[in-house]
Write a structure and sequence with these properties.
mainly alpha; 0% strand; 180 residues; globular; 7 helices
């Protein structure tokens, strides 16, 4: 099969069936890219997700670009990014064309209220899977919990939290527990 066509179809499917943004597509990406096609290993996906989160731009586009680049460099990155972004573009275009007619429709408002809890679950599941892959356990779960609380309750920039975690990880790895 043609890797370009396969990767475009895969990321188009991921893009079209994902409600709730980039983080909600992580389970689909994992299933398609790691389990089904085996384009990347689970550990590599965890690293790609971390890099995609820390880069500017839309997470969904970033992760698709990184996976596409790993597959076929720049042409692969372009194809996977197109596959990911095209469904959203087409859906938003359709909504923009017809939204003024459906804006006050109670059925549509109810549909969106029903989708919200499902989106929260779609984000929660990969969060727990990523925590497991990152070897977060009861002894170190305080780090993501504290980080989330500092960002949410104190309004600290996530960038500062990432920098502090990187420095803390470096200090721990250098002075407390040298790697094998």
């Amino acid at each position: 099969m043609n890797i370009y066509w396969d990767s475009f179809k895969t990321f188009f499917k991921i893009g079209i069936f994902t409600l709730g943004g980039g983080y909600a597509m992580i389970p689909l990406i994992e299933e398609e890219v790691v389990n089904k096609h085996q384009w990347v290993k689970r550990e590599e996906l965890l690293d790609l997700i971390a890099v995609a989160q820390s880069c500017p731009g839309v997470f969904a586009a970033n992760i698709s670009i990184f996976i596409g680049y790993k597959l076929r460099h720049t042409p692969g990155a372009v194809i996977t990014c197109l596959g990911t972004c095209l469904p959203s573009f087409l859906i938003i275009l359709a909504i923009a064309m017809f939204f003024h007619q459906a804006e006050e429709n109670p059925v549509i408002a109810s549909i969106f209220r029903g989708i919200r809890p499902a989106v929260v679950a779609l984000i929660a599941v990969p969060t727990f899977n990523l925590a497991k892959s990152a070897h977060i356990n009861w002894s170190n779960c305080w780090i993501p919990i504290l980080s989330a609380l500092v960002i949410w309750a104190m309004g600290v920039s996530p960038i500062l939290v990432i920098v502090a975690a990187a420095i803390g990880g470096w200090l721990y790895g250098t002075f407390v527990k040298p790697t094998e």
